[in-house]
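tool_call predict_complex ligand=GCB
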Amino acid sequence: PPLPGMLYPRESESREIKSLDGFWDFVVPPSNDVKKGHREGWYSDSLTKAEKVMQMPVPSSYNDITTSKALRDHVGPVWYEKTFFIPASWQYKRVFLRFGSVNYLAEVWLNGELLTNHELGHLPFEVELTEKALYGQQNRITVAVDNSLLANSVPQGNVYDVGADNGTVKVQYYTFDFFNYAGIHRPVLLHTKPRVFVDDLNVTTGLINDVGIIKYSVDIAGAGEKEVPVCEVNLLDANNQYLLTTPVVGTQGTFKVSSPNLWWPRTMSSNPGYMYTLEVTVHVPNSSEPDIYRLPVGIRTLRWTNTTFLINEKPIYFRGFGRHEDSAIRGRGLDLPTVARDYELLQWVGANAYRTSHYPYSDEVLDVADRLGFLIVDECPSVNTENYTPELLKRHKQSLSELIRRDKNRPSVVLWSIANEPRTQLADTGVYFKQVAQHTKTLDPSRPITIALARSVVEDKAGQYLDIISFNRYNSWYQNSGRTDMIIKNVVNEAQNWHNKYKKPVLMSEYGGDTMPGLHELPSYIWSEEYQTEIMSKHFEAFDQLRARGFFIGEFIWNFADFRTAETYTRVGGNKKGIFTRDRQPKSAAFHVRRRYHALSAEL
Ligand code: GCB
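tool_result ok
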């Protein structure tokens, strides 16, 4: 069955929003009895009655807030609780509770009653409180958040019992290379909708000669069987001027905009990221209060061939990064200052694109990408899949359903990445990814799909299901360490081989090397700033050769900034492949990349 809508909560004449962000009460069950909270029913009354609580900020990961190693490395549920008032005036509205992201498993209670649960971090979920809320009174939300990753979670992991000095403890293992941060990672919002409301919107855009086409359809929820809601739609330009004097009536329709301001990626127009607004009003005459929802829309086309990727019929060359939602103390929690700084740096360095490695980023982050004209490779949370099970396939598809439901209307999203580095040499790869690819295509035929592949060209069994081939390769890092004199040949040959095998456009989705800021070595030596710059230089030479061959469409450095990983002896405080440090200051390579990315942008 199709999922209900998950439109981002936007205030309007008919919709109110109340933030529940801030300090929440927080309790960690003892590590030798992680199910204590569930057993004792901690949701049934105030947490303070069960345990001694501490204050935990929301949104944030909980891992790096305190000085406790046990909490940082905790495996299993933790408990959050917040009390708040719902105004009496809200009893005439429908009330919803929305979590932007809880990683990984969330159970939510209202006043002691289980409301919902959600699996998969990095994606929003919402539940209606209308019937259960206490109006004009205090209410209590309890959330249990479990970070355990198992054989069938996305991404996969294993939890083992390990004999420690004080007895047996649970330890989480995973092969992916970023810290398994947990907690309430994104805003928690209470918001209202009228009885009959705009549940979902689908927008696709096109261009015929000089006429922009916006096709839309509106899903309405809440109308009674005999009620006939009226839907009116109008379009506004970026100066908030209506394009039509009277709105169009109907839940489906097409706007034609002559001489439109197209949505262009950065540096391909003096006004990149141009957004119109689709204004939708629904009501049941003489019966329901009108609901008004406004969706930003960019008019652009996408088309791809065996060798190129075109936006508005112009070939695109991606110059960007793999990134992480990661910063000190907050971990994976939404942090607007970091978001703003990152976009400043992306513009400073001259990038036009990034991949949301290795999970969907927040709505707030993607809103800025839409407005600034960044190209987004939107990745679902499937990383390093090690074996393919029917149960995993189900969840993997579910993650794409939820991702596409959330991001389908964003002009910045131009490519779905349906996985990162799965074991595509395994015999059942084809069966599995054929289904994942078909599922994605059914949900959104308008965008191409890719996987960041990492097995060799010869053994890969997934490329045939993709529109664009992306490959991750660590020349002169994990292989031929120190040998920067082998990069050009290897990169050129590998890209050519991918193209020869699948006859699709090819991009390099990861390359780079760990770099300790301040470590200098001449001649270059691995981990020094000079070594990182040399890795970049050699890749740039390879990319220039490849671009002349006509099928190579982009380069993505791993990584934009240093980030936290699991604790291992190969990582010094985390992964240091950033061209910026974790506190977002440049390493030497950043200046080098900047010269190239700006030079590339001048060519367009
Ligand atoms: C990869 C992964 C990425 C890692 C990177 C590395 O191939 O996709 O998650 O962080 O390599 O630095 O090892």
